[in-house]
Amino acid sequence: MSRVRAFWGAALGLVALGLSACTEVPTPVEPVAKPIARPNTPKPPQVTAPPRVARPTSEASALLRSYLNQVQGAQLSQGLLRRDGGGVDTPYTDTMLARNFEQIALFNEYNGSFTGRGGASPLRRWAAPIRMDVIFGDSVPPSQRKTDLGNVSSYAARLNRVTGHPVSMSRNANFIVVIASEDDRGEALAQAAARVPGISASSLTPLNNLPRDTYCVVAAYAAGAGANTYTAALAVIRSENPSLLRLSCIHEELAQGMGLANDSPNARPSIFNDDDEFALLTSHDEKLLQMLYDPRLKTGMNASQARPIVQKIASEIVTRGPV
């Protein structure tokens, strides 16, 4: 069974929080001619926080981990989840690239509630710099956290280079990646919503209630004046995924969260294809991202408006070679 990578766009309003502060004015005192000696009191004992006790893994999470390991093993045994980016067996022309871009960038994979297929959609992308951060569920061990954070950081740098759009890691994030288990995903999602304005509690429901064959998902939000300009995104990756599936989720969901919202059965070599042939971003996919952020395309364009420009850009990119 192929992994399901859903994308959800929602237009939300931002809520501005105003904070006020008051300054206490000290009561005047008489000047002192000489320093007042402080009493010789012992220092308070240092309090050490108790060691964190890991939460026991639930049966649901353990069964899910076993299932996902079987999925990865079965896919690898069939020659799927390739990491070579394509080669002589996966040629494509500028015409094919333009067609794939239209299908992937100008259509939605799912509707807003993940209950059905999406349809045609205007071009969507970010205008502001993208600032990514990772929130881990309490059950994710330190070794996995280190690996996953490193993978997200290096991939963010790659997206920055490929698109020419600013993408970086930051605690002041507007694109949060939640990596959590079945046991602690709800808590991690709540942390993410508290940190990013424009993400409502109601929008988290489909992200928290994932079917078993949904290994990861991303939701992008447009909370500003432009309905097609992303201002926030939230990717959710099951920590129960084995290492390659988890890395594959990072590659696809973060790229989808930049505006490549759909999959296409015709796209090859590509991670934007439900056949799972490729696990990691390919040279073909890098070209799609480069096209998405080409300034000749305008946010909000429909397929007919974008098509002649997309064909011209695709011809230039294929002629020019690797990104």
Automatic annotation (TrEMBL):
Name of the protein in question: Lipoprotein
Signal peptide (residue range): 1-21
Domain of life: Bacteria
InterPro entries per UniProt: DUF2927
Taxonomic lineage of the native organism: Bacteria, Pseudomonadati, Pseudomonadota, Alphaproteobacteria, Rhodobacterales
Region called Disordered, residue ranges: 33-53
Statement: the UniProt record of this protein carries the keyword Signal: yes
Record carries keyword Ribosomal protein: no
Keywords assigned: Signal
